[in-house]
């Protein structure tokens, strides 16, 4: 009875693991060009990311066929529904990751991720509109269905027309601004976030960081708007590092993986901005962020494995 119970409680948030790993793999791919180190690290991370994503996907598919009721409950939950966007985000990140390994695989992953992202964006926003949601349900995980849109142009720039990609970029940036206002209002003027959602504050970094990369890919230059996006991402990075005391004593939750993807996105954005401008600050910022992302992912992976062995993950909350 124990094994089915754990499968029954296998959370959709597990896909944030593949998000974090693929983000780190991309950061190391870009860093290998900048710092001229061995390709063994990004290639190893790409292989590990692929295995982890397949394992999580197969497990969740099995859960769907055995416990459809529980999956449908997650898909209609005001908080958990946002984490379904981790699936297309993982696919889109892996398409970027495979862009330097196998173009055919990258293309297939991009099309899958793009279609799923387009559907989940429409479904999630209509869900928000049609439900009478309470303010306490809003948290930074709401950015996930949005940030995936901004990822679409990065992997798709060599696949489809730029005008098509501008649709996703526009939707992502537009709703980022709206959600930023809503979520800051909730955090500042209402009850504090539950401790398990404190790591999701790092998602504040992701939209402007990914937006910087997508905009440069679309426009081919680092102009005023790209600088604006990058510096907003930098501000949220500094703010959350300044607030480190809020995170160091947190009890472990699978939401800790929310630390990783935003940090790796900011790392990749810093590398790209250095490549475009020659900025010395971005050069050293990318080194520091890459080191920080690596340390954080090692620690979070250790904690995840530790609590999995203790059978304290995939339990009833």
Q: How would you characterize the overall build of this protein?
A:
The chain has 317 residues and is mainly alpha-helical. It contains 12 helices and no strands. The protein has helices spanning 2-8, 15-35, 40-66, 68-75, 86-98, 103-130, 144-156, 162-189, 206-219, 224-242, 260-277, 280-309.
Layout of helices and strands, plus pairs?
Blueprint: H1 2-8, H2 15-35, H3 40-66, H4 68-75, H5 86-98, H6 103-130, H7 144-156, H8 162-189, H9 206-219, H10 224-242, H11 260-277, H12 280-309
Looking at the overall shape, the CATH architecture is Alpha/alpha barrel
End-to-end CA span: 18 Å
Element-by-element helix/strand order: HHHHHHHHHHHH
CATH topology: Glycosyltransferase
Question: Oligomer, anyone?
Answer: single chain
**How many beta-strand segments?**
0
Helicity, in percent? Answer: over 70%
Number of domains: 1
How would a crystallographer describe the biggest sheet? none
Global structural class: mainly alpha
Shape: globular
Strand content: under 5%
User: Which spans have pLDDT < 50 for at least 5 consecutive residues?
Assistant: none
| Average pLDDT | 88
Total helices: the number is 12
